[in-house]
Amino acid sequence: MSSMTLLADAASPADFAAARQQMAFTLGFHIVLASIGIGLPALTLLAEWRGLRTGDRVYQELARRWMKAAGVLFAVGAVSGTVLSFEMGTLWPRFMDTYGQVFGTAFALEGMAFFIEAIFMGIYLYGWDRLSPRAHLLTGVPVVVAGLLSASFVVTVNAWMNQPRGFKLVNGEVTDVDPLAAISRHFARVARAEGHPVGAPREYSVAVIDQQLPGGMTGTLRNQLVQYGMVHRLDEVLAEVTVVRAEMGFPIMATPYSQLVGIQALLNVVTGERYSMVPDENLMYLAGHMGPHPAPVDPEVLDEALGSERGREFQRWTPPQPSLEEVRHAHGDTISDEELILRFLMPDPDVDAMYAAGPVQRHLPVADTPGAEMVVELMRSSRAAYLALDHGDVHLALSREVGDCK
């Protein structure tokens, strides 16, 4: 037994309360810094790519400034993360001594991802004006990928703490440790809860390189096809996305341009006549109201879309530039800033439906096995003060105060 475990045995409830407060204080800083450290490099990389693509110096300068901030926040986040790693061992020694071998693999993988992120972060920061623009842009990709992997491994450990897996507990000792099961079973449980196949790899199509359609858009298009009873035509829509993207001048497949391409491809397939229906947002794009096109637009598409009465209106149209006060007055003087942004960008019925639906469920069911479901149901429905369950070598006894059985 380690010295830390002996100290844990001598700890009082007040000591545990202090440990929780210290852990919460450190996490309060680290979560914010880590979140920014994951998102800001991705935005920086996007700005640099945009600058290289368009030659706009503003994007290049924006990428430099953002990455300097990301470097500072990364360094501070690394320090707070190091403090957390020490706190895990010093504040919760018995927990780490008993179960560290189970979820330690996820932390080890997180450490590897962190070092990859740190190495390429240094190369990216030092490589400005020292590497070719393309090489420098590519050095930022591992920073983004490693950051996402690092966060995934940490979330996996958190999920394991809520639903422990990958070991057997015999007489208080952890045996038959399967560290990867602690990770894989979490994702399998999430897949089952979301209705996705488990253990069946999905086919990969190189068409995604041509269409570059975001994953969220793919799901949206599928749901829209379900509404039309045409879900079997999803592959046809995805193939149409590649064609429409080329015809519209290869816009970057990110919001809002991915939506413009995706909805046009969907309409082309559903109506059976290409460009017979063109949304106003696409007409705005084709008319140049969203900025210059990355590449020339197909002349036939321009003639078909802008030759309509609605298309000619957008060619003559001047985009309004309302003030913040005018926007707030139009949508409601008393609503929050968050709701104001939603209503300015989305139709009111969609926002109303979103608020009516309530918050998204963030927690999976506690019980995910028949035995666990039975115990939970018994505790909810039974008024007994004592409950015992024997199953093989397992004996479970639950009790509660008599006053709680009213």
Distance between the termini: 44 Å
- Total individual domains: 4
Number of helices: 18
Major β-sheet annotation: 2 strands, antiparallel
Strand content: under 5%
How would you portray this structure in words?
This protein is mainly α. Strands 1-2 form a two-stranded antiparallel sheet. It folds into 4 domains: 191 residues, no CATH class; 108 residues, Cyclin A, domain 1; 34 residues, no CATH class; 36 residues, no CATH class. It has 18 helices and 4 strands. 19% of the residues are buried. Helix 2 runs antiparallel to helix 3, helix 2 packs antiparallel against helix 6 and helix 4 packs antiparallel against helix 6. Strand 3 and strand 4 form a beta hairpin. The N terminus and C terminus are likely disordered. The radius of gyration is 28 Å and the shape is globular.
SSE arrangement:
Elements: H1 3-9, H2 13-54, H3 57-91, H4 93-126, H5 133-139, H6 141-162, E1 168-170, E2 173-175, H7 179-193, H8 207-211, H9 215-227, H10 234-247, H11 257-271, H12 280-286, H13 299-306, H14 309-316, H15 324-331, H16 337-345, H17 348-357, H18 370-381, E3 386-391, E4 394-399
Antiparallel strand pairs: 1-2, 3-4
In short:
The chain has 406 residues and is mainly alpha-helical. The chain is 67% helix and 4% strand. Strands 1-2 form a two-stranded antiparallel ribbon.
Provide the descriptors you would attach to this structure in a database record:
406 residues, mainly alpha, Cyclin A, domain 1, two-stranded antiparallel sheet
